Amino acid sequence: MPVIHPEFANLREVFVNSYPKSGSTWLRRLLANTLGCAVGNFYDDDPPQFHGPVDPENRLIIRKLHYSPGLAMHAGLEAEVTQRLRDGYHVFLQRDPRSVAISLYHYSSSMRGGRDLASFLRARFPDYVSWVRFGLERADLVLKYERLLDPGNRVVYLREACEQIVGRSVDAALVQGAFDTLEFAKLQQQDPHFFWKGKADSWKEHMSQEHGRIMHDLLFDFMLEQGYEKDLAWWQHLPLKAQPIPCA
């Protein structure tokens, strides 16, 4: 059962929740570096860590989790998770599901089970909408991964998010400093296994018409609703054969 490390039991918990491989690790670090607070995992009691200067005004700990009700990985923990999400501050991070699919297939080589990408998509993504819908409907704040990649607006976007979390003004220089420290190229050098591309549209390089049609059939209505796609024939513009996705 997840527990709160005693040394940090009096800190307010901020949860960064997402579907796996949506950018929650990066966002957790960005928030913590900007606000000068600790980061920790939800699923263990390892001591939280600080990755930058500490701001004593922000008595927060930023925790990452991947949660949606009914998942086997949370069996027996739903009451605990739900209560802590309610008591803390729940941030949900959303990403284009096509990018999620490619990133997850790359990272989760052990989950492939010998399946090609088409089989992986059919097996993994029928539950995507219900998982994400929970976060969209229940979170205190919803952010989009793609807007964190936009160099022209990302500082303003993250600054506004931080201000909503702490309820006071946040210096834009702190936000810019967090992005400078956590540039994706630097993260890739530190851990190329986990941080692969960090691009908004990398799915176009690795998704064929076959893969696109699968995602279209499963998720087009949701992608349309969320502003990720509006072209009914988008998948037909993909190549017949796409670049293979290496194992992480």
What does this structure look like?
There is one protein chain. This protein is of the alpha/beta class and 248 residues long. It has a single domain (6-237), classed as P-loop containing nucleotide triphosphate hydrolases (Rossmann fold, 3-Layer(aba) Sandwich). The chain is 45% helix and 11% strand. It has a 5-stranded parallel β-sheet with strand order 2-3-1-4-5, sandwiched between helices. The longest helix has 17 residues, at 209-225. The model is unreliable at 1-5 (pLDDT under 50).
Task: Describe the structure concisely.
By secondary structure, the protein is of the alpha/beta class. It has twelve helices and five strands. It starts with 11 loop residues before the first strand and ends in a 23-residue tail after the last helix.
List unreliable stretches of 5+ residues.
1-5
Number of domains: 1
Shape: globular
Strand order of the largest sheet: 2-3-1-4-5
How is the biggest beta sheet arranged?
Answer: 5 strands, parallel
Percent range of helical residues? 40-55%
Radius of gyration, in angstroms, nearest whole number: 18 Å
CATH class identity:
Alpha Beta
End-to-end separation in angstroms reads: 29 Å
By secondary-structure content and strand pairing, the structural class works out as alpha/beta
Let me know the average pLDDT. 85
Number of helices: 12
Stated plainly, the CATH topology is called Rossmann fold
